[in-house]
Design a protein that fits this description.
The complex is a heterotrimer of chains A (279), B (279) and C (301).
Chain A lengths: L1 H11 L6 E6 L7 H14 L4 E5 L7 H4 L10 H5 L5 H4 L1 E2 L6 E4 L12 H14 L2 E5 L6 H8 L3 E6 L3 H14 L6 E7 L1 H5 L6 H8 L3 E6 L2 H9 L10 H13 L15 H8 L5
Parallel strand pairs in A: 1-5, 1-6, 2-4, 2-5, 6-7, 7-8
Antiparallel strand pairs in A: 3-4
Helix pairs in contact in A: 2-12, 6-7
Chain B lengths: L19 E6 L7 H14 L4 E5 L7 H4 L10 H5 L5 H4 L1 E2 L6 E4 L12 H9 L7 E5 L6 H8 L3 E6 L3 H16 L4 E8 L1 H5 L6 H8 L2 E7 L3 H8 L10 H14 L13 H11 L1
Parallel strand pairs in B: 1-5, 1-6, 2-4, 2-5, 6-7, 7-8
Antiparallel strand pairs in B: 3-4
Helix pairs in contact in B: 1-11, 5-6
Chain C lengths: L25 E3 L3 E6 L4 H14 L1 H4 L3 E6 L6 H12 L4 E7 L3 H7 L4 E3 L23 H8 L2 H12 L30 E5 L7 E4 L2 E5 L7 E4 L3 E7 L2 E4 L9 E6 L3 E4 L2 E3 L13 E6 L2 E6 L7
Parallel strand pairs in C: 2-3, 3-4, 4-5, 6-8, 7-9, 8-10, 9-11, 10-12, 11-13
Antiparallel strand pairs in C: 1-2, 12-15, 13-14, 15-16
Helix pairs in contact in C: 1-3
The chains are: A alpha/beta (279), B alpha/beta (279), C alpha/beta (301).
Chain lengths: 279, 279, 301
């Protein structure tokens, strides 16, 4: 009953407010930051106004992945503590006019940020941007709780590994019903899946049971471009870039297919299985 | 690569050699802390030491999974700290190794369930059971990290040769030096071909930035994912070169001076060319 | 997973006091007791009855009884003895059964009479435990029995040291705000009814039974003093009979738990079961060990 009432209230709110989406996982190293940077870039290339927020205070990385580390003058905590205005802290992207970054503080601690302050900050950003993407730190501690504080939606990133699935499942449980989480399966290696040495997307989602936003294959390109600070989404061609653009379209509400990675069983694989050997 | 079908057995320590308490940490998530803890612990056990591996990632436990012991968990570290069971009851002996046991984390609790003092107290209690205690630290630098460090006397920092990982490792090393604590470094997931093509940092570059004692370089191996999914540490695979590598790291921790295997040609030449062409 | 394994049978009901068969003389029913006095020697039967009733005074007090006689009516002495046995414990007579001659007995006892020539020794399938019949286990049960040496060794050593082998149920821990967001549709007394999938790290604890409509993911746990039923896939840890009831059962549409506990018995699935087609199964304790049988082979109560 309560839920239905909320829906009616939301319809009254002016649609001009942007969408705040947190990108999270629980497990570290699955590609949250890379995903945030690339999705943000893809959305900006569609003409949306996008703000990226690095909530990993003390261990910031979103600036590196965007190639902006030398341009960061102020950070999130400076704004919250009133030292600078939001304007002064937002760093415009090197590649897109409508993409900005709000960096994390490097020499501070996550528990220095009160949750209400985070929520208020995200609200202010929502008034000025179509999308506010929040890059969530690993873990489920204070930093995580802050990162989800201002958001209304969540994108959950998971790699096809048993330990990642366990951690992600925990996070989905903690998110509860509010965030309408969607799943990105990252770093899939079709060859390994074929040989039975890696979980498939079905294996992952058999446990996580989330609507699938897309699947990204593991490519050396990704490490290279994050080291260099050039998000892959800048190139629309190429499997990974195209995948991010498809996901951005899906987020924007377009009726597109979730980008998948083909795992075609090879003839030899089938032959091996037929003779009872490991494919 | 050299192969060994069995490790030589080290004589049990006599006299008042105190238990080594090592926290395995990184800052960045997903660089291989848990895999390193499991395999290094196994290697030390294969060399005859009594080893206890402690999972400090309360709420996101994975060490049990990586060793395939998740079905045998009855008690966990939080229950030990709360006095609801004996330390001895919570330890799970790994049947594949003579002298390896793990102390699992709790899954349905939060990191705040334990204080740093409580954690340190539990670790101190392990002195009678172990020559080596390896503490698998959670990602980040929040409560979980602080607790894990509180139980240790030395640190093993794991990083990959990527900019974001190195930056986080640097932050973590800064914090560890404040304690203070001796620090060793492992460079994980090296891809020599990417170093050669200039797309990944070389080990020397990593060491130059982090300025810590290098005790191991572990190349990327696509078997690792499958072994962690199946719960069988890779050191059990006699045909895999990582077995020897972890054994050598174990020996370096014992104090032996073994040179680090170089996996790539020196980049000095490249840098020289670079210096000449850019002036 | 034991699919179509014809030989698998379920053990007879574990004694829980509710439908206890004390002897050929006394048979427990949900409404009370049935006393068979149609044997050869009524005097002996009454002596035995007195012994049985005295052995569990509180249990039999104030209950209802049906008396079943044979063809011959009891003597006046026997009848008096019977009456004092019953009234002394406030046992009321619900009904009297027997041959035509018993009608007078019923009148003397001021109880309704029903003519019944049927012998009381109708085979009650629950009367004697069927230990003589060889019970074949399903494939899944066999693999569970053979599994888990390490944990059993741990538990044995804990028991030798006089320690609890599994953690004690401590419900005071679970405060309202710690519980995962539940959609409680109906809370029948003693049963927790949860709709939705339980994620890793979430825990449901209940004095009573637990029913989950949804999956229980690895990393989640269910702890109940009674039974556990998962209408979905059970992949986490389930502990039924957590306060010591070995007759508790765990049932699921897809029973693939990380670990199963019933009272103080503990077991884990063998990896041989992975990838097999899911079918509803029941886990219960037999001879101190946990066994799993297909639900279709579980006899109904």
């Amino acid at each position: 009953m309560h839920e239905r009432q909320l829906e009616i209230e939301e319809a009254v709110v002016p649609a001009a407010r942007g969408r705040a989406i947190v990108i999270t996982s629980g497990k570290g190293g699955v590609g949250k930051t890379t995903t945030t940077a690339n999705l943000g870039t893809a959305l900006a290339m569609r003409g949306a106004r996008v703000a990226l927020v690095d909530a990993d205070i003390g261990l910031r990385n979103l600036d590196i992945v965007l190639g902006l580390e030398s341009r960061v003058k102020h950070h999130l905590l400076d704004v919250i503590e009133g030292g600078v205005t939001l304007e002064e802290a937002l760093v415009p992207s090197k590649y897109n006019e409508s993409l900005v970054l709000l960096a994390a503080a490097q020499h501070r601690e996550k528990d220095e940020v009160p949750t209400e302050a985070m929520t208020a900050l995200i609200e202010r950003l929502r008034e000025r941007f179509d999308y506010v993407l929040v890059d969530c730190p690993a873990g489920i501690e204070h930093g995580f709780r802050n990162a989800i504080a201002g958001a209304q939606e969540a994108i959950v990133v998971c790699t096809p590994e048993v330990s990642a699935v366990r951690d992600v499942d925990r996070v989905i449980g903690l998110l509860g019903n509010r965030f309408k989480p969607q799943l990105i399966v990252n770093r899939l290696r079709p060859q390994l899946v074929k040989r039975g040495k890696m979980l498939s997307v079905e294996d992952v989602n058999a446990i996580l049971r989330l609507p699938l936003l897309g699947v990204i294959a593991d490519e050396p390109e990704i490490i290279i471009t994050t080291n260099k600070g050039e998000p892959l989404a800048l190139r629309r061609d190429g499997a990974t870039g195209a995948a991010y653009h498809a996901m951005a379209a899906k987020i924007a509400g377009e009726d597109v297919e979730a980008p998948m990675v083909e795992v075609r069983e090879s003839f030899f694989g089938r032959l091996g299985a037929f003779f009872g050997g490991k494919a | 690569m050299e192969r060994s079908s069995s490790f030589p057995i080290v004589k049990k320590k006599v006299g008042n050699v105190s238990t080594r308490r090592i926290v395995v940490t990184s800052g960045k998530g997903g660089v291989g802390k848990t895999t390193t803890t499991a395999n290094l612990g196994a290697a030390l056990a294969m060399r005859g030491h009594r080893v206890v591996l402690v999972d400090a990632d309360i709420g996101l436990r994975n060490l049990d999974l990586v060793l395939g012991l998740e079905k045998r968990i009855v008690f966990d570290i939080v229950e030990v700290a709360e006095g609801r069971c004996q330390l001895r009851q919570a330890l799970i002996k790994d049947k594949r190794f003579e002298s390896l046991a793990i102390l699992p984390a709790a899954q349905t609790r939060e990191k705040e369930a334990l204080t740093a003092e409580q954690f340190a107290g539990v670790i101190a209690g392990l002195d009678e059971f172990a020559d080596f205690v390896l503490i698998d630290c959670p990602a980040g630098i929040e409560t979980g990290f602080r607790n894990a460090v509180a139980g240790a006397k030395e640190a093993l920092v794991v990083t990959t040769p990527e900019v974001s990982a190195i930056r986080d490792a640097d932050r973590v090393i800064g914090k560890l030096l404040e304690v203070p604590m001796p620090i060793s470094l492992i460079v994980n997931r090296l891809r020599p071909e990417m170093v050669r093509s200039g797309d990944m940092l070389a080990v020397e570059d990593v060491c130059e930035v982090l300025n810590a004692t290098l005790v191991g370089v572990v190349p990327d191996d696509e078997e690792i994912i499958d072994t962690t999914n199946r719960g069988e540490p890779i050191v059990l695979d006699e045909s895999n070169r990582l077995r020897t590598i972890y054994e050598k790291i174990a020996r370096r921790l014992e104090g032996e001076d073994i040179p680090i295997t170089s996996f790539e040609k020196p980049t000095f030449f490249k840098r020289l060319i670079g210096a000449i062409t850019t002036g | 997973m034991g699919k179509g394994f014809a030989g698998a049978q379920r053990e007879p009901a574990v004694d829980d006091g509710r439908s206890e068969v004390v002897s050929a003389l006394l048979r427990g029913r949900s409404w009370g007791i049935e006393i068979a006095l149609d044997g050869a020697d009524l005097g002996e039967a009454l002596a035995e009855l007195e012994g049985k009733l005295s052995a569990a005074e509180a249990f039999y007090r104030d209950c209802e009884a049906t008396l079943r006689f044979g063809e011959l009516a009891p003597s006046a002495d026997d009848l008096t003895r019977l009456q004092s046995l019953l009234s002394g414990r406030n046992i009321s007579i619900r009904r009297v059964l027997g041959g035509a001659a018993i009608a007078a007995t019923a009148e003397a006892l001021a109880a309704p009479f029903e003519e019944s020539a049927a012998p009381s020794a109708a085979p009650n399938p629950r009367r004697e435990p069927r230990r003589s019949r060889v019970v074949e286990l399903s494939e899944s049960a066999r693999s569970l029995k053979a599994d888990f040496d390490g944990a059993r060794a741990d538990i044995a050593s804990r028991r030798r040291a006089g320690e609890p082998s599994v953690r004690r149920l401590d419900l005071k821990r679970l405060a309202g705000d710690e519980a995962p967001s539940l959609r409680l549709v109906e809370a029948a007394p003693g049963t927790l009814y949860h709709i939705g999938t339980l994620r890793g790290g979430q825990s449901l604890q209940q004095i009573g039974n637990i029913v989950v409509v949804g999956d229980v993911n690895p990393g989640a746990e269910l702890i109940a003093s009674g039974d556990i039923l998962v209408f979905g896939r059970l992949a986490g840890v389930a502990h039924a009979g957590a306060q010591g009831d070995v007759s508790a059962r765990v049932r699921a549409l897809d029973l693939v738990p990380t670990q199963l506990r019933i009272a103080t018995a503990i077991a884990a699935e063998s990896s041989a079961r992975r990838g097999k087609k899911a079918e509803p199964e029941t886990a219960c304790v037999r001879d101190g060990k946990i066994v799993v049988v297909p639900y279709s082979k579980e006899e109904s109560w």
